[in-house]
Amino acid sequence: MDLLRLVAFDPEDLAVISAHLQDSLLRVGDIIYLPKERRFAIQTFRYDWEAATPQRRLTCMHFEHVKAVRVRGVDQTNKDAVLNLLAIAFDERDAPSGTATLIFAEGGAIQVDLECIEMQMKDIGPVWAAESRPEHDDQPQAERL
């Protein structure tokens, strides 16, 4: 499969990107908020749901027009901690502004306040075999990067 590159400008676009990023693994140290540039970015290890065999891809995503970022349930001091991204939700307030919420397994979340939705996701490099297909039950299965 070719490298995937998607752009979101509205909640429907963001839902498509959320589906592609479901079960992405990321390190806390690979999350960055650049307030002067008004950008929030993450490097992930995306599970490729469309591949014939279980695999992960190095993928980056970023939001533009960011007004603020709030973190809940994520230890920001442990840069090597691995988070499992379950979904990205959007709560529109005073259109086109609103809040994108990155929802992680184990209850963590990051809220990104946006003037408007302008988000990009892009596969940027290596592909490697994943040990297994992610499962969604009460006891999430651990998976090595």
Strand order of the largest sheet: 1-10-5-4-3
Tell me the span between the first and last alpha carbons. 20 Å
Taking the sheet with the most strands, its summary is: 5 strands, antiparallel
Number of helices: 1
SS content category = mainly beta
Number of strand elements:
10
Whole-number count of domains: 1
| Beta content | over 45%
In round numbers, the mean pLDDT is: 92
Overall geometric form:
globular
| Low-confidence regions | 139-145
N-to-C series of helices and strands? EHEEEEEEEEE
Radius of gyration: 15 Å
The portion of residues assigned to helices is under 10%
Structure description:
The chain has one helix spanning 11-21; strands at residues 5-8, 24-27, 31-34, 39-47, 55-63, 66-72, 82-92, 98-104, 109-114, 119-129. By secondary structure, it is mainly beta. The chain has one domain (5-128). The longest helix is centred in the N-terminal third of the chain and has 11 residues, at 11-21. The model is unreliable at 139-145 (pLDDT under 50).
Ordered list of secondary-structure elements with their pairings:
Layout: E1 5-8, H1 11-21, E2 24-27, E3 31-34, E4 39-47, E5 55-63, E6 66-72, E7 82-92, E8 98-104, E9 109-114, E10 119-129
Antiparallel strand pairs: 1-10, 2-7, 3-4, 4-5, 5-10, 6-9, 7-8, 8-9
Short description:
This protein is mainly beta and 145 residues long.
Question: What characteristics describe this protein?
Answer:
DUF2948 family protein, 1 helix, five-stranded antiparallel β-sheet, mainly beta, DUF2948, 145 residues
